[in-house]
Amino acid sequence: MCYKFIMEGRKLVFILIVLGCKLTPSHGDAGSDLSKLSTEYFEWRMSVLPESSTRRGYHKYNDILESFTLAGYNESKVRADEYFARLKSIPRDELSRSDSLNYDILENMLSTYISGYEWRLYNNINTLNLLEGPQIAPSDFTSFFPFNTIGDYENYLARLTRLPNQIDERISLFREAVRLGTVYNNVSVNLVIDQIENVISACPLSNYSDNCGFYKPFTQDLDNIHTTNATRTTLRSRGVTAVNLLMDKFQNLTIFLQTEYMPATRQGYGVANLHKGREFYQACLKWHLSLDLTPEEVHQKGLDEVKRISEEMKKIMTKNGFQGSISEYFAMLKNDSAMFYNSSEAMLDGYRDLLDNRVDPHLAKLFNNLPGLPIVVKAATSDGPAGYYSPGSKDGSIPGIFWANVIRPAEYAKFSMLPLTMHEANPGHHLQISYNLLTETPDFRSKMEYSHMFSVPYAFPSYTAFVEGWALYAESLGEELGLYKDDNELMGRYSSEIFRACRLVVDTGIHYYNWTKDDAIDYILTYTDESRHGTSLEVDRYVTWPGQACAYKIGELKIKEMRQAAEKKLGDKFDIRAFHTSIMDNGAVPLDLLERNVNEWIEEQLAQQPQEPDSTTCSAQKQFAQIWLLSILLTSVEIFCR
Ligand SMILES: *[C@@H]1O[C@H](CO)[C@@H](O)[C@H](O)[C@H]1NC(C)=O
Ligand SMILES: *[C@@H]1O[C@H](CO)[C@@H](O)[C@H](O)[C@H]1NC(C)=O
Ligand SMILES: *[C@@H]1O[C@H](CO)[C@@H](O)[C@H](O)[C@H]1NC(C)=O
Ligand SMILES: *[C@@H]1O[C@H](CO)[C@@H](O)[C@H](O)[C@H]1NC(C)=O
Ligand SMILES: *[C@@H]1O[C@H](CO)[C@@H](O)[C@H](O)[C@H]1NC(C)=O
Ligand SMILES: *[C@@H]1O[C@H](CO)[C@@H](O)[C@H](O)[C@H]1NC(C)=O
Ligand SMILES: *[C@@H]1O[C@H](CO)[C@@H](O)[C@H](O)[C@H]1NC(C)=O
Ligand SMILES: *[C@@H]1O[C@H](CO)[C@@H](O)[C@H](O)[C@H]1NC(C)=O
Is residue 619 part of a domain? Predict the structure, then answer.
């Protein structure tokens, strides 16, 4: 639902020049040891995540696939331990300030992974679900793949031929989960059957067309390759053979799920129903939040936030003379066609108007050095979340895109559109990622891997709490700027916020307090204007990814908490623009490091220290590097959604 990748590749010719700043000798051996270690670490990750590395425009491993085996999980742990030991042998106090942060982040990534090993036999061996796996979108398998030469086709055929084996590996791990009793609830896999059916029906036996995602590269694309007709014919027939075997394997996967796995799925919805399940949940929460909070604390924060926000909502309702419940109030508001656009085009224009005329003119009040990278609003091509964001390139040649779902204008009220715009576009994902694109960080940070959510907590972190916490915080900035122009728009904003607060209650409810799916749906519908059908799918997501949905509100609360601390300590010296810079400048980090960074910034403001030396000595090189950056680099990213 939320994780997709977009990549734009260019040549990497001048990369060393870009790294110039980091290679300056003044930082000594420690700096170069760290740089060498982080390069090797990144290469290792790309080699074991070949599908992701293809998406990142890194084509060295295009002929292989990720492997899912217990032995492989053990090998990765050994490897991570080795890197961790090497990192610890680097004297951190000899590093430059920016390298110290690189060190801390690498340390956080490795130690998070290593401590997750304990839970490798939980969700991590259930490697397919309604949100993840090759059955979801075959186009993901081919979209990022280059098809320019015969070599590319050989690589693709190698990968295609290996996919049935990967499916067998996944089946073996599923069997292990059944044996150990660490299985999903039925709702996590039930939809997988339909997804596989869609894949198979798009590929009728041996008669493949470009409807068949896995075969598509062998259709028209192949005509553009410089080669003989005989070679094309051979490639096509090898393609047919490979896809035949793959479809056969998908068919067997369905049979396996229906006859072996689904009858063995766990009875309760939450992981509390597994052996040591509550401890497992706690570990998942810690992974997603990048903070040590207990499930009880998260639940309580959720209840407090729901109470606070619902009181704001009730004030508005009372003011307007309404006696009923929040959901009745929304039903009343939505019982009026004036609350909706009457066409997809009008709705799309509505989003553009909000961004260009309502939000953007005010950004300079809250931010310094606006990056000004372009953003466009486009209509999402398939139904799904209300909106999502895909980043552009750092030279601005590819704009960031706010993909708005305008497929059902009669169901999504106008008053919900402004918070969504602020979340996905400015000052939410687009602004944060623009700052990020213009900050130079090593590959392991700038091309951070987005882990399989099923692997959590035995996975390298991607700091969702920071990224999504920022976007939710961005929604609140609209209130501060007075952008929500009437009570209805404020209700839309609160509905969006309370929805994320509800997630704290229901995620912990399901996994820690053993709530049922209906308990969770009813709770959410009490406070929001979400539909029952959409909420049901949402809850399936929570059931499948314990803790993930808590990242948004917890991240936002942390940013607000840091802001309050800064306002209190700095008093008159507090500058909101500089505060935002202190958050954005370091890119995505775990929340405990965010807290430390902001506290350091506060101390500096109090002492009114001059700029750190790094930024002045390197500024000429940085400028030089920026020029080269115009012509290069890969932008590898996730699609961020609510
Ligand atoms: C993985 O390591 C664990 C702990 O050392 C061991 O018990 C297990 O047998 C290993 N599994 C495989 C498949 O090597
Ligand atoms: C193959 O598919 C095409 C449509 O894609 C259809 O017209 C044709 O009849 C099919 N051929 C066979 C042998 O099924
Ligand atoms: C190759 O095939 C194309 C279309 O199928 C055809 O137009 C062309 O004449 C063929 N070339 C040779 C050398 O047979
Ligand atoms: C699918 O299952 C059948 C029956 O168990 C088996 O004969 C066949 O080889 C399997 N196909 C694949 C591709 O695994
Ligand atoms: C799984 O859920 C589906 C849809 O609710 C239901 O039809 C099916 O019987 C369930 N299977 C099991 C094993 O619970
Ligand atoms: C969770 O609730 C179900 C009933 O809804 C019950 O059967 C199960 O034993 C409970 N599990 C735990 C761990 O309390
Ligand atoms: C919707 O509006 C109609 C006519 O204005 C009214 O009769 C009906 O009661 C309203 N429904 C709700 C749920 O407010
Ligand atoms: C759509 O709404 C606009 C104004 O909001 C109105 O001018 C137009 O007539 C409406 N079109 C339809 C088909 O109802």
Answer: no
The predicted structure's pLDDT at residue 24: 41
Ligand whose nearest atom lies closest to the CA of 517: 6
- Final residue belonging to a domain, choices 212, 238, 264: 264
Give the burial class of 220: count Cβ atoms within 10 A of its Cβ; 0-12 exposed, 13-18 middle, 19 or more buried: exposed
Q: Are residues 239 and 346 in the same domain?
A: no
Distance CA 440, CA 425 (A): 22
Rg (CA), the chain: 25
How far apart CA 427 and CA 437 sit, in angstroms, is 15
- The 10 Å CB-count burial string (b at 16+, else e) for 534-544 is ebbbbbbbbbb
In terms of residue numbers, what domain contains 636?
2-21+626-641
Same domain, 17 and 150: no
For residue 264 and ligand 5, the question of a CB distance below 6 A is answered with no
Say if residue 350 is in the same domain as residue 220. no
Same domain, 431 and 362: yes
* Helix or strand run (H / E) with residue 113: helix 97-116
Task: Give 552-612 as a 3 state SS string.
Answer: HHHHHHHHHHHHHHHHHHHHHHCCHHHHHHHHHCCCCCCHHHHHHHHHHHHHHHHHCCCCC
Can you tell me which atom of ligand 7 is nearest the CA of 331?
Answer: 13
Domain boundary residue among 544, 559, 574? 559
Instruction: Please list the residues that pair with 404 across neighbouring strands.
Output: 379, 387
- The number of domains in the chain is 4
Q: Tell me, what's the pLDDT at 642?
A: 57
Same domain? 576 vs 637: no
Tokens representing residue 351 in the block: 């989003």
| Residue 616 lies inside a defined structural domain of this protein | no
273 Cα–ligand 1 center, Å:
25
**Does residue 614 lie within any of the structural domains?**
no
**Judgement on whether residues 258 and 282 belong to the same structural domain of the protein:** no
For ligand 4, is residue 248 a contact (CB within 6 Å)? yes
577 and 517 belong to one structural domain? no
How would you label 142-159 residue by residue, b for 16+ Cβ within 10 Å and e otherwise? bbbbebeeeebbebbbeb
User: CB–CB of 625/440 below 8 Å?
Assistant: yes
176 plus 301 within the same structural domain: no
Ligand 6, CB cutoff 6 Å, lining residues:
268, 272-273, 514, 516
Q: Compute the distance between CA of residue 317 and CA of residue 529 in angstroms, rounded to an integer.
A: 14
The ligand whose atoms approach the alpha carbon of 263 most closely is 5
CA dist 97 → 38, 474, 585 (Å): 16, 28, 13
Q: How many CA atoms lie within 13 A of 398 on its CB side?
A: 19
Domain membership of residue 618 (yes or no) is: no
pLDDT along the chain (642 residues), means of 10: 30 28 54 97 95 87 97 98 98 95 97 98 97 88 90 97 98 98 97 95 92 95 94 97 97 98 97 98 97 97 98 97 95 95 97 97 96 94 82 86 93 95 96 90 86 95 94 96 95 96 98 98 94 90 96 97 97 95 91 95 83 40 27 32 54
Ligand nearest to the CA of 202: 2
DSSP E strands, 168-316: none
* Spatial separation of the C-alpha atoms in residues 18 and 20, rounded to whole Å: 5
Residue 143, pLDDT score = 82
